[in-house]
Write a structure and sequence with these properties.
By secondary structure, the protein is mainly alpha-helical. It has 1 helix and no strands.
């Protein structure tokens, strides 16, 4: 049995087939990369949305606490002013 030798035409056909396969593989990789990029983008968007929702919940609670504390401070300041006035009246030389 004699070995068969490839002709230039055979090599050119093989080269073209190989280039087609490489191009197809390249396109597949690019499609996968784009799909991965889109998936990552969607995940980041969901994560950002979740974080913003949770931050808003925290901010609403924090704002309520601040309002309650502000009301307490206003009441405290009013009582303190009243006490200062009474002390000043007691310390004044007229009494």
């Amino acid at each position: 049995m004699e070995p068969e030798f490839a002709t230039k035409a055979d090599l050119e056909v093989a080269k073209l087939k190989l280039l087609e396969r490489v191009e197809a593989a390249k396109l597949e990789v690019l499609e996968r990369m784009e799909a991965t990029r889109l998936e990552s983008s969607e995940r980041m968007e969901r994560t950002e949305t979740t974080l913003l929702k949770e931050f808003r919940k925290w901010a609403v609670r924090f704002e309520a606490i601040v309002r309650v504390n502000e009301a307490s401070v206003v009441g405290f300041n009013a009582r303190l002013a009243s006490l200062e006035e009474r002390v000043n009246d007691l310390e004044s030389p007229q009494h």
